[in-house]
Amino acid sequence: MGAEAKQLVDDAIKQGSLNFRDGLLREFDGINVSWEEALKLLKATTHVDPSFKDFVEYCNSENLPLTVVSCGIGPLIQDFLDTFIGTDLSSTIQVEANGVRIENNKWKPVYHDDSEFGHDKSLTMRKVKESLGTDAVFVFVGDGLSDISAAREADILFAKKGRDLEEWCIKEKVEYVPFENFSQVLLAIQKFVLTREI
Q1: Which residues of 46-68 are buried (b: 16+ CB within 10 A; e: fewer)?
Q2: Hey, what domains does the chain have and what are their CATH numbers?
Q3: Average pLDDT for consecutive 10-residue bins of the chain (198 residues)?
Q4: Which of 37, 45, 160, 177 is in the most buried spot, having the most CB atoms within 10 Å?
């Protein structure tokens, strides 16, 4: 699926005429490549924030558990983490995302749950909260429309500047910390660990 077709899907989701689950299915309909071809193309064209590795290293040093909560494809996310931050670090991150089934280069999503999102991130956030207890402070870092349900569950919310999640926060008057890259998130979390203030 090209950028223009993906934008049409995104616009339909924003307008409410298409849910995330069906949007993902439409996006998958446009894929006709092997797993290996997809990985090669994505690694050549996808930017990974270089400061994310520093962020993960800091969280590990402070025993702060990290979970990637995504409507994307879990095995792809795991491969990217392995490649860009190394397997030692990536093995410390829990990934909660959709799966994929590939037959004859045709991709079909394997949804994380039965929600209209395919993966309702708020349900995952609640599950993680239950496992860590009531004293845990939940930080969520996001940028897109699929992050809105999880954003409601966060104690501290970071929303990427100029993206859909920030637009929603402004519209709904939800308190958030704007960021452009993970180095800014890292500084804010370091400050919070020391002072309990953002």
Answers
A1: eeeeeebbebbebbeeeeeeebb
A2: 3-195 (3.40.50.1000)
A3: 76 84 86 94 89 98 95 94 95 96 95 91 91 87 92 95 96 96 98 92
A4: 160
